[in-house]
Amino acid sequence: MDHAPEADGEPTATPDAATLEDTAFAAELATGAGELLLKLRAELGFGDPRALKSAGDNGANDHLLGRLAAERPDDAVLSEEGKGESGRIGTVRLGADRVWIIDPLDGTREYAEAGRDDWAVHVGLWQRGLGLTAAAVALPAQGVTLRTDERHPVAGPRPDRPRIAVSRTRPPAEAEAAAAALDAELVPWGSAGAKAMAVVAGKVDAYVHAGGQYEWDSAAPVAVALASGWHASRIDGSPLRYNNPDPYLPDLLLCRPDLAEPLLEAIAEAS
After folding, report:
1. Beta strands at 11-13 and 98-106: parallel, antiparallel or unpaired
2. Element housing 261 (H / E)
3. Is 75 within 8 Å of 96 (Cβ atoms)?
4. Degrees (nearest 5) of the Cα angle 249, 26, 53?
5. How far from 140 is each of 12, 38, 144, 213, 244, CA to CA, in Å?
6. 186 sits in which H/E element
7. What letter would DSSP give residue 142?
8. Read out DSSP for 191-255?
9. Kind plus residue range of the DSSP H or E element containing 5
10. Separation between Cα atoms, residue 36 and residue 184, nearest integer Å
11. Whole-number Cα distances in Å, 269 to 25, 182, 266
12. Alpha carbon distance 234, 98 (integer Å)
């Protein structure tokens, strides 16, 4: 297997048969969890958002953990909804060579709002010495699953007025400073995965986040973006690292490669 350094600072394996199999499995998992979430949405409706959120979180998590336990029993798991050894404070994953980092329902608020399609399911695989090697992000309400073995390259020249995806309610000061410096437009969007995939799909040019996240919020989206040649880093330009003892990973810059330097400079000047 050949290895090459990637934009996140971790070496990433050139896809081989095993990696492609992992990617196909990740896509199957994410898509299947998304189908379950759509079914729950249709059955429960939107009259009780709290109940819908709970059912979605628990149902998707049980689906993913069940499939992983049955089909990848030797792999560890880091899940937003997990507990104990497979959860955010578990220690088994720290000694594992393969760790699935999953977010069963990214964007519970959007999921529980009628008509919204900007929520996601994240399934990513981290391997020791290789970093993120396989991943898929499902956007179930859009009928789309983006994966690391399908390229979504940057298209066209850098726009004169870039579009930066930000939180619907809490645009970070760093994004506002970058927008002012680059005459960019801030575009409110839904979940972290939905914002990241909006960049990869070319709907926006960047995603800037500085309000606090965990590894499951960004692992799969970052892997998909890097596989297509997009830039992904911390907002200070340092690499994104995964399967850490503390999974808190508070900030993220994901953007066109030709926007990375000016965005990082604008954020640094505002700090």
Report:
1. unpaired
2. helix 257-270
3. yes
4. 65
5. 27, 7, 6, 22, 29
6. strand 185-189
7. G
8. SHHHHHHHHHTTSSSEEEE-S--BHHHHHHHHHHHHHTT-EEE-TTSPPP--S-SS-B---EEEE
9. strand 3-5
10. 38
11. 42, 13, 5
12. 23
Residue range 189-239, pLDDT digits in tens: 999 999 999 999 999 999 999 989 999 999 999 999 999 999 999 999 999
Count CB atoms within 10 A of the CB of residue 129: 9
Task: Give the span between the Cα atoms of 9 and 233, in whole angstroms.
Answer: 9
Coil, helix or strand at residue 84: helix
Beta-carbon neighbour count of residue 244 at 10 Å?
11
Cβ distance 228 to 140 under 8 Å? no
HSE of 84 in the Cβ direction (CA atoms, 13 Å)? 1
What single-letter amino acid sits at 15?
A: P
pTM of the model: 0.91
Q: How far apart are CA 133 and CA 19, in angstroms?
A: 7
pLDDT digits 0-9 by tens, 38-86: 999 999 999 999 999 999 999 999 999 999 999 999 999 999 876 444 4
Name the DSSP letter for residue 248: B
Could you list the beta-strand ranges (E) of 140-184: 144-147, 163-167
CA-CA-CA-CA torsion sign (267, 198, 211, 87) = negative
* Total residues belonging to the chain: 271
Query: What would the two tokens of residue 121 be?
Result: 């399911």
Q: What gap in Å lies between CA 224 and CA 244, rounded to an integer?
A: 20
State which H helix or E strand residue 125 sits in.
Answer: strand 120-127
Is the distance from CB of 153 to CB of 42 less than 8 angstroms? Answer: no
Q: Do residues 86 and 78 touch, judged by C-beta distance below 8 A?
A: yes
- In three-state secondary structure terms, 67 is helix
The C-alpha atoms of residue 247 and residue 218 are separated, in whole angstroms, by: 11
Contact assessment for residue 77 and residue 65, using Cβ atoms and an 8 Å cutoff: yes
Does residue 170 sit in helix, strand or coil?
Answer: coil
- DSSP code of 256? -
